Amino acid sequence: MRCSVERGWGWGRCAPSPLLLLTLLLFAAPFGLLGEETRQLLEFDSTNVSDTAAEPPGRPYPPYSLADFSWNNITDSLDPATLSATFQGHPVNDPTRTFANGSLAFRVQAFSRSSRPAQSPRLLHTADTCQLEVALVGASPRGNRSLFGLEVVATLGQGPDCPSMQEQHSIDDEYAPAVFQLDQLLWGSLPSGFAQWRPVAYSQKQGDRASALPCHASPLHPALACPLPQSPIVRAFFGSQNNFCAFNLTFGASTGPGYWDQHYLSWSMLLGVGFPPVDSLSPLVLGIMAVALGAPGLMLLGGGLVLLLHHKKYSEYQSIN
């Protein structure tokens, strides 16, 4: 089947299969999805930072360049049954042995149907989406209160402008406790593609509320020219463009839980074509709303019945002269 291919996440009238999406991301991540010529894992010293919204969130350490990482053979982790694969790497030159017992991993998974993962933040996915999960495990921080971050680069759409970044708020936090926000990038007004994530990371593998870390995204800005991977698949989907927009993601705050607890950090993003999945209210929230809205009505109805029966009782009383 032939499809018209647009720049960015644009596939014209037909969307790629889950396996094709997975193949695309395997060729593009981590080199084509994160970073530009620096391709950085960021680290900040937040020891003396009291403002959780500070930018940057602390004194920056020299960043780790993903271009200088050694990555595993992807075929060793490719699982056709779950449509997933994992990139795992560490710096080639590590004189301080920061990554002696640690690694940075990118797990890519495609989906064949609509559902939610068991792992928080349980983003709703459809058959034309892929999930990218980033995990930093076992690496020694260079400070007692180190915060980590990623530089994320987005391709341009059909026009010269960066994708639009939006925040969506909800009263429903059943799938990601205490997180009432969803962030997303949209390519084009229709849109032709999207990236979607909740502004939360986790400092423990189970990803519960106690280990939740705030995730802050900086504004989008044009990035320096960066060559795409030389894969024919990547070239077919993204064209020959070399202009990008970038933003930084930072995870955690100087107070509360952090990477320093168990030397673990994970965060996930959903990527797809067309319109992003839209969350509906969960059954739990619908039930609470029904009770909250229905209780006053039932009380009024019950009060009316009591008054009616009380009035009827007195109306049936016959006075004795």
TrEMBL record:
Subcellular location: Lysosome membrane
A GO term from the CC aspect: lysosomal membrane
Superkingdom of source: Eukaryota
Tagged with keyword RNA-binding: no
Regions that span the bilayer: 284-309
Membrane topology field: Single-pass type I membrane protein
Regions annotated as coiled coil: none
Alphabetic keyword roster: Glycoprotein, Lysosome, Membrane, Signal, Transmembrane, Transmembrane helix
Subunit description: Interacts (via lumenal domain) with lysosomal protein MFSD1; the interaction starts while both proteins are still in the endoplasmic reticulum and is required for stabilization of MFSD1 in lysosomes but has no direct effect on its targeting to lysosomes or transporter activity.
Stated name of the protein: Glycosylated lysosomal membrane protein
Gene name in the database record: GLMP
